[in-house]
Design a protein that fits this description.
By secondary structure, this protein is mainly β. It has a single domain, classed as Trefoil (Trefoil (Acidic Fibroblast Growth Factor, subunit A)). The chain contains one helix and seven strands. Strands 2-3-7-6 form a four-stranded antiparallel β-sheet, with no helix packed on it. Strands 1-4-5 form a three-stranded antiparallel β-sheet, with no helix packed on it. The longest helix is centred in the last third of the chain and has 5 residues. The protein is globular, with a radius of gyration of 17 Å. It starts with 13 loop residues before the first strand and ends in a 7-residue tail after the last helix. The relative contact order is 0.20. It comes from Drymodes brunneopygia. This is SDF2 factor. It holds the Pfam family MIR. InterPro entries: MIR_dom_sf, MIR_motif.
């Protein structure tokens, strides 16, 4: 289901991460990644629609994923943790780091919100009229 704007994300909740530009979901399956030899992570689906291999569990402390807290994402089907290490591609995008899944939790699979999050306004928000005082 699509999250409503402002709904907190629970620790232990399964989510899908969708790239806004392409509409593809963060996806993984039991294939070896080309550089590190870990599990491949790729993009899949159209307009946010995909399959069960797009589901990631939010691993964090407490009840909800808090803005300043580090978080891990564990693939719900294969149990690997979303990770990035030092491996970089030469082509097609020189210097792009390989994102992959690792079997063990470690310092390479902590993630933290750095610049905020884009949330599309809800339908109710879009239809309301607002007046700004000058």
């Amino acid at each position: 289901a699509v999250c409503q704007r402002g709904t907190p994300v629970r620790c232990g909740q399964a989510i899908r991460l969708t790239h806004l530009g392409t509409g593809r979901n963060l996806h993984s399956h039991r294939f070896t990644s080309p550089l590190s030899g870990n599990q491949e992570v790729s993009a899949f689906g159209e307009a946010g629609e995909g399959d069960y291999l797009d589901d990631w569990t939010v691993v964090c402390s407490g009840t909800y994923w808090a803005r300043d807290d580090e978080v891990r994402f564990q693939h719900t089907s294969t149990d690997v943790f979303l990770s990035v290490t030092g491996e970089q591609y030469g082509r097609p995008i020189h210097g792009q780091k390989e994102v992959h899944g690792m079997a063990a939790s470690n310092q390479n699979n902590y993630w933290k919100v750095m610049e905020g999050i884009f949330m599309q306004p809800s339908e109710a928000f879009q239809t309301e009229q607002y007046h700004a005082e000058l």
